[in-house]
């Protein structure tokens, strides 16, 4: 599967869109706002404010979250400039995502509102940059601030060796790492994350100015052992369980589940730290973890059952990939089953995810 071509959050034409089902990611943005402000204050601590400031948000998606980071960054810099009694810089904001992203939504419905809220003395331009953040996207030494939220747990590809076309099925009945996954499966996932994250850092290192800041939030895991049940892997098991229900009724052939592995990886802090240190271009200012309860996020769909809310959120992000592999026509059935699995799980447990906040400075 060519992940960069297939993956996209559900956009305008879909019934269940990311725009209407992203309050959990919005909560992540609001929890990490103080870290963004901290990074900007450190960066501009003295009078070190450029006349032109270039900001990139990577994996911006569509819907109301897409312009939140840029607004917050501009507001913070503007406040800092006012304190220092100087003019705000001119801002260039680059919004990046994969080519299948609903960029139209951003530029037709959101951007006018974004501009109407900007002050008269703020000069600001916004541009969309389709492409994978696992590789170069921008001119060398051009970016002052890079932001990315809820995106870097996506891999560039299904880990090599675990893609359907690449040989024997190695992770039977699973779609991600679980207790029954082999060591080879675990290592293959870990290696793919290492390769991707290293390439991400190398690419940004070339694009950022010296002293530039990068604030990344992405899903992670609390435990070193990737098979310990927690937010993300447990949640993938519930999707696998729903798929296996469909296998038992003859709706999906078993091999179809056996040969599918999700192109995501939730790392532990040690793994992230090692990659940043070995790559060597960035100073690590912070690496922290937070717990986010995705069910109790205010906002979208408050009248729905908790299971339905979770299912819509997951569907808005995973439908492109799951539908491509299993068939779009099966997605209603799959997610109806998934609602039941999640509702029954939520009777006795909560639904928390681990999110990492990583704050870096380009050396
Ligand atoms: C859960 S959404 C997060 C959107 C937004 N940042 C937010 O906080 O609501 C993850 C986004 O990352 C994008 N993404 C995944 N892999 C990517 C890649 N290699 N390059 C660029 N964007 C990617 C997806 O297309 C998706 O829109």
From TrEMBL:
Which InterPro entries does the record match to this protein?
MeTrfase_7, MeTrfase_capping, SAM-dependent_MTases_sf
Q: Which UniProt keywords apply?
A: Magnesium, Metal-binding, Methyltransferase, Transferase
Q: Which domain of life is it from?
A: Eukaryota
Q: Does the keyword Glycoprotein apply?
A: no
Pfam families xrefs: Methyltransf_7
GO MF entry, a single one: metal ion binding
Q: Name one GO biological process term.
A: methylation
Has the keyword Metal-binding been applied to this entry?
Answer: yes
Q: What is this protein called?
A: Jasmonate O-methyltransferase
Give the organism, scientific name: Nepenthes gracilis (Slender pitcher plant)
């Amino acid at each position: 599967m060519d992940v960069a071509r297939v993956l996209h959050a559900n956009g305008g034409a879909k019934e269940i869109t990311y725009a209407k089902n992203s309050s959990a990611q919005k909560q992540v943005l609001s929890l990490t706002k103080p870290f963004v402000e901290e990074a900007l204050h450190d960066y501009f601590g003295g009078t070190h404010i450029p006349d032109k400031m270039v900001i990139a948000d990577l994996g911006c998606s569509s819907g109301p979250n897409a312009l939140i980071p840029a607004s917050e960054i501009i507001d913070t810099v503007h406040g800092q400039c006012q304190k220092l009694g100087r003019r705000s810089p001119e801002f260039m904001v680059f919004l990046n995502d994969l080519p299948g992203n609903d960029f139209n939504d951003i530029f037709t419905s959101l951007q006018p509102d974004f501009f109407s809220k900007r002050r008269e003395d703020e000069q600001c331009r916004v541009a969309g940059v389709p492409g994978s953040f696992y590789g170069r996207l921008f001119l060398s030494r051009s970016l002052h601030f890079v932001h990315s939220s809820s995106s870097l747990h996506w891999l560039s590809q299904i880990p090599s060796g675990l893609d359907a076309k690449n040989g024997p099925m190695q992770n039977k009945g699973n779609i991600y790492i679980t207790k029954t996954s082999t060591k080879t499966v675990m290592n293959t996932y870990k290696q793919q994350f290492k390769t991707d994250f290293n390439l991400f850092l190398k690419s940004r290192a070339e694009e950022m100015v010296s002293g530039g800041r990068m604030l990344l939030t992405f899903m992670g895991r609390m435990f070193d052992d990737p098979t310990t049940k927690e937010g993300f892997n447990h949640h993938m098991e519930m999707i696998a369980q729903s798929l296996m229900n469909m296998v038992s009724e003859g709706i999906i052939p078993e091999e179809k589940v056996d040969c599918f592995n999700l192109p995501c990886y939730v790392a532990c802090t040690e793994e992230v730290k090692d990659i940043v240190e070995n790559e060597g271009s960035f100073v690590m200012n912070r690496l922290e973890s937070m717990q986010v309860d995705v069910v109790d996020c205010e906002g979208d769909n408050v009248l729905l059952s908790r299971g339905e809310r979770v299912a819509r959120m997951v569907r808005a992000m995973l439908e492109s990939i799951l539908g491509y592999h299993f068939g779009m026509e099966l997605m209603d059935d799959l997610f109806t089953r998934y609602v039941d699995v999640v509702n029954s799980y939520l009777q006795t447990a909560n639904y928390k995810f681990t999110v990492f906040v990583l704050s870096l400075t380009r050396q």
